[in-house]
Amino acid sequence: MFKKLVPINSNQHKDIKLKRAPNYNFAKTVHVAPLLAHEFPQASSSFPIIFHKNEETNEYHPLGLLGLKKEQNLLIKDGQWTATYIPASIRRYPFAAASVNGNDENMVVCLDEEAEMFNTEEGEPLFKEDGSEAEVLTQVKEFMNSFIDREAASRGFVGYIAEKELLVPRTVGYTKQDGERVNIGSFHAFDEQKFNELSDEDFLEMRKRGYLPVIYAILTSMQHMESLFRLQQQADA
What we know:
- This protein is an alpha+beta fold.
- It has seven helices and 13 strands.
- The chain has a three-stranded antiparallel beta sheet. A three-stranded antiparallel beta sheet has the order 10-2-11, with helices on one face.
- Strand 4 and strand 5 (59-65) form a beta hairpin.
- The mean pLDDT is 92.
């Protein structure tokens, strides 16, 4: 989705204007979208919530599964988002937050210079004539700050369920209309059986931490796998 992400600069981008996209075609090649834990209850109404493991760091990252093939978003039809919930990582486009020199404590707001939403002729300016931030940029930074603030809590939740060994590898595939079985790839999923086998002590600890609604949202979200399979069959037809 992002092509050329650079930090926002009042000199470099003083003439840039934002013209809101009329549709979601900019995300039509996004088959997985990063999620934060606070999004899970709403996201569970729209698509499966899965986890990707970084083999170098052994950290897990939650994702919304939007399609079964790379570069194919099954939830966008004729430019329109067909599901109920839109991930914040997509709603914030063409802006993003990035760490400075890999330091997550030092974040800057960036923009995609090659996004079609940017031009110098029409739209909302990012900066005022005196070089100060315009309203649209102030709103973007407020959104990003809220996102960053919640990221730490999300990492804490994911780290906790990983420590309890509740994330297990899964392979996903579907059957085409002609009967051919297609294996798509693998990811990590929340293990409902292990969750149900937790000790009373661990279960109560999760309740105290406020994790139970988030966990139930993950489990609820997996019902949408069948919907994705149907959409993929229609796309292959």
